[in-house]
Automatic annotation (TrEMBL):
One of its GO terms (molecular function) is metal ion binding. InterPro entries: Rieske_2Fe-2S (IPR017941), Rieske_2Fe-2S_sf (IPR036922). The lineage of its organism: Bacteria, Pseudomonadati, Pseudomonadota, Alphaproteobacteria, Rhodospirillales. Residues 16-122 form the Rieske domain. It comes from Ferruginivarius sediminum. Signal peptide: none annotated. This is Rieske (2Fe-2S) protein. Keywords: 2Fe-2S, Iron, Iron-sulfur, Metal-binding.
């Protein structure tokens, strides 16, 4: 059995540093866990593709499962969309809209991030997940 190590949990608040941009090569993604003030844990992920860096909550709008079948694998095999590992729904990378599959018409919940002056991916807002 293989165990995968998740990065350490980070606080869900503006300015929290997720990782250096260089840790997410073009065409890949990376998962993180955030904790809020009440100690609740939420999984998010960041994808880097075609110069675009986006982040979403790691929850499929269809059945609420994590999107990655194995840690840090969020893109479909063609690299053009985010794909849910459970039933195969596909989401546009740029805005998280579901474009195929059982949750067509819904979308991923976005997480606000930016690249800071040191080249790190940081949260710009508290995520306010319910
Ligand atoms: S849980 Fe994601 S497509 Fe069903």
């Amino acid at each position: 059995m293989t165990f995968f190590a998740r990065p350490p949990r980070r606080e869900d608040r503006p300015g929290t540093r997720l990782c250096p941009l260089a840790e997410i090569p073009e065409g890949t993604g990376k998962g993180f866990e955030l904790t809020d003030r009440d100690g609740r844990v939420r999984a998010i992920f960041v994808v880097r593709r075609n110069g675009c860096v986006v982040a979403y909550r790691n929850v499929c709008p269809h059945a609420g499962t994590p999107l990655d079948f194995k840690p840090d694998t969020f893109l479909a095999s063609d690299g053009e969309t985010i794909q849910c590992a459970t039933h195969g729904a596909r989401f546009r990378i740029e805005d998280g809209a579901c474009i195929a599959g059982p949750c067509n018409g819904k979308g991923l919940t976005g997480v606000a991030v930016e690249i800071d002056a040191n080249g790190a991916i940081v949260l710009t807002h508290r995520s306010n997940f319910n």
